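Write out structure tokens for Protein farnesyltransferase/geranylgeranyltransferase type-1 subunit alpha.
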Amino acid sequence: MSSTESDDESEQSMTSHQYSTRPDWADVVPIEQDDGPNAVVQIAYSDKFREVFNYIRACMHANEMSERALELTKDACYLNPANYTVWCYRRKLLYHLNCDLNEEIAFVGNMIRNNPKNYQVWEHRRIIVERLSHPSNELAFLAEVIRSDSKNYHAWQYRQWLLKTYGLWADELMYVEHLLQEDVRNNSAWNQRYFVISHTTGFKDDIIERELDFVLKSIEFNPDNESAWNYLRGIARFRSTNLTDQRLWKFCQNLYENKYLKDDFNCQQWRFLFAYMIELLADDDRADKQEENKRMITDLCERLATKIDPIRKKYWQYIQQQHSTQ
């Protein structure tokens, strides 16, 4: 099937495949599904579904390696794209018949567009790309899928496999920055940024400072973005978070004093700032600051519990109690 064929065209093509009336399938005795005498849950298969899978069971039982069997697997994949056994059989046929696997990439591309969160379809594509031994236009295809759903786990998992396997790192950080410009709350893009750096430059001192510049600027612009705060946590663990290292604490203090104290409208947007300040205070191991830090944690927890994040009141009361007893 070409990459431009529509679902309707595919459906019409399948409708014409009444295998029981076709002379070229007259030699095949279909094998019906055996659910036993007392099926717990009787599934109401359509007549089309039942026929296609009766015939594919017969072909698989006979280990038939033919063009007609390959076409039959296409119908079966359309009817149930999650059937892993059918995809395995289809690959055997493709390899045995020495088919053009670039055409298969086009076919499975359409399947992914219509079933973007189906693991078996993505796995089939991965195996075919491995068989071809080159990634071709995979990144462009993935960008198309991610445009439709920027948080598609399967697409991101596949993209990470592709980058690692074929070393396609050159423009990935730029791609991620583009996604974050479009949606700064895209947690998948933040995760991908961390992934790319981990597998390329690593978190050396200059990279850490660059990433802190990047994420702190993002947080300052949008302090209610949990994804950015989580990225900050991931970066900060590579450097000292003790309050003797003033950069992160000063950043939080500036947000608190210059923005939070002047915010009369949306207290809730500061819940991540307060939570991170509590973490920094709790991690400060300077003995002469312990009592002062406890008082600040108590104050922050009380504000979270009563004004900023009251839906988690009991949680913040628990955090306050934990630190007050240490």
